[in-house]
Amino acid sequence: MDIEWGRIIELWPEIQTAFFQTLMMIGISLSVSLIIGLPLGILLFITDRGLFLENRPVNSVLGFIVNIVRSIPFIILLVALIPLTKLITGTTIGPVAASVSLSVAAIPFFARIVENSLREIDKGVIEAAIAVGATPWMIIKDVLLPEAKASIVQGITLTIISLVAYSAMAGVVGGGGIGDLAIRFGYYRYDNTIMIVTVVILIVLVQLIQQAGDYTAKAIDKR
Q1: Is residue 186 a contact partner of residue 198, using CB atoms and an 8 Å limit?
Q2: 79's torsion region: left (phi>0), alpha (psi -120 to 50) or beta?
Q3: 38-75: pLDDT as tens digits
Q4: Is the CB of residue 23 less than 8 Å from the CB of residue 209?
Q5: Of the candidates 110, 111, 107, 104, which has an alpha carbon nearest to the alpha carbon of residue 41?
Q6: Cα-Cα end-to-end distance for the chain
Q7: What is the distance between the alpha carbons of residues 182 and 16, in angstroms, rounded to a whole number?
Q8: Dihedral (Cα; 45, 46, 50, 52), 10-degree rounding
Q9: Does domain 5-220 correspond to CATH entry 1.10.8.100?
Q10: Which end of the chain has the smaller Cβ count within 10 Å, N or C?
Q11: 176 conformational bin, left if phi > 0, alpha if psi -120 to 50, beta if neither
């Protein structure tokens, strides 16, 4: 396929706008997923069998909810949450509106990553903290999070990459961003140049995110 550079220059303002809309969606949904998903993942871990705040009913209910949300395909979740999106943002189109569905999808995804990261910690370290009289909060703050921080950073990287893919899908329902640009100018108008440009932008963005995440994880991993 030949790339029409004149077409790219013509639509450059649209491409820039779409790119920043994608970054906005990712930024909002990532922030929400960190604020809610991190404590949710910790709670899933510490309430499990044999842990210091074991609570099987709470663990089962939270795990069930997380599994349900994670099992729903994002495009269906996007449509199903339109009433909630309208209630929260007052609209159902645009990057802010799309961020609602992105956040709901990212929270359980990141929570499971956090839970799995904590499971990698040597149980002897936790038992030693309990033996010296550490409170649950101290164990979480001084043992669990420091020990799992490199793995959690890698989990954040994976979450961001997933959000990039989800944000592109949000363009199908007018969520804005790169996906919306690809649908409106690439798919509907059979413009192969725009399709190629949007794919390249997403590939480059994912590669940069992955490299930054890998570098950060290695830098903070002192093991």
Answers
A1: yes
A2: alpha
A3: 999 999 999 998 888 889 999 999 999 999 999 999 88
A4: no
A5: 111
A6: 48
A7: 13
A8: 160
A9: no
A10: C
A11: left
Q: How far apart, in Å, are the Cα atoms of 67 and each of 4, 61, 107, 174?
A: 45, 10, 11, 27
3-state secondary structure the chain: CCCCHHHHHHCHHHHHHHHHHHHHHHHHHHHHHHHHHHHHHHHHHHCCCCCCCCCHHHHHHHHHHHHHHHHCCHHHHHHHCHHHHHHHHCCCCCHHHHHHHHHHHHHHHHHHHHHHHHHCCCHHHHHHHHHCCCCHHHHHHHHHHHHHHHHHHHHHHHHHHHHHHHHHHHHHHCCCHHHHHHHHHHHCCCCHHHHHHHHHHHHHHHHHHHHHHHHHHHHHCCC
> What is the distance between the alpha carbons of residues 116 and 110, in angstroms, rounded to a whole number?
10
pLDDT tier at 2, thresholds 50, 70, 90: low
Contact 164, 138 (CB under 8 A): no
Q: What is the CA angle 117-123-126, rounded to 5?
A: 95
The Cα-based distances of 82 to 24, 98, 168, 173, 221 in angstroms read: 19, 9, 17, 10, 41
- Are 168 and 179 in contact by the 8 Å Cβ rule? The answer is yes
Only one residue has tokens 């799309």, namely: 98
Instruction: Compute and round to an integer the Cα radius of gyration of the chain.
Output: 20
